[in-house]
Amino acid sequence: MGAVTSLFGPLLVSFTHRFHLSLPSAGAALSVYFVGATLGVLPGWLGLKRLPGRSVLIFSLVSIVLGAAGASIALPWSLFLASVFLIGLGFGALDIGLNTLLARTALRGRAHRLSISNAGYGVGAVICPLVIIVINPNNFRLLFGGLAVIALVLSTLNGGVHAPPLRTEPMQLEITRMKAQRRPILVTFIVAYVLYVAVETSASGWMATQLHGVGYSESSGSLVTAGFWMGLAIGRLLGGPLYHRLSEKKLVLGGLVLATIACAVAYSDALAPYAYPLLGLIVASVFPMGLMWYTTLCPHDSDGLSLLLLFMMVGGVAGPAVVSLLVSQVGVHVVPFTLAVYAALDLAVFLSALRFRPLDVSGGSMSATTT
Fold it and tell me: What is the CATH number of domain 2-355?
């Protein structure tokens, strides 16, 4: 998942050459990918409610196989975008599948599981830009073919996953009855995650283009993109230990304060190559610790988590799309400014969540857990 997400940013310039497009038009690949990811959450969510988690993971990976294979051989831009959409569809289902399953595991050690698994996302996102440098961005078809093979292998390795369908969880019925109390919490976290995803996807998707636009080479842009994802991976590996020293609230809010500053620093052409890797390190804990925060406020709410992961994909569509529009009107220097605005708004929304108290879910038995 990390490799796929970090793939498009460093390749936007190569797309313009291969398909004879303008840079804003090539940026449509990012938006199409996240439209697919947004829609992919729906079959992922419905699958989790009715099928074992293992089946959802296999479906998601096979979708990525088909999309990546199609992108590796597509000649017209329209067919390439269709393949990218299919990759996004698999990503969305896989994203909601993995994070929902991990959030259903036992509370003891849950923060470590969420942090480490999302660190794996960061590791994949580091490796992909480095591979792009090695194989040359113009040979991106080889990379898509390699991702198809990897996803195919992974689709055969889910035999040990035990995850009952969500409809078997009796505690979900209890919290669903508390609609009036849950609704403001859920809406607040949905908006917060839309803004967070806008920060992450817009930064990873446009930092290489910004650097290239101010005189850095394409390889430098790929290295900085890899540095961003390396920072994200390291930060998430540290998330579990930090959780025992700091609360999930402090990790989320502190990360967004520093992220706003880092985005502002990236406005400097000289400092941008250093600010973006630092940004990855800073925002790393926002995603997993935000999920911990939500599960603390709304325990056993698998449906709420699914809705949260569904709607947050809007940030992956709207965030880069707004940046693309502004770049076409103003130029690449608008990228860090827009990121800073996203981060500041996200901070404000998460701060508003401090007014909530955990819901008192009583009665019923313990929820089914994933192993």
Answer: 1.20.1250.20
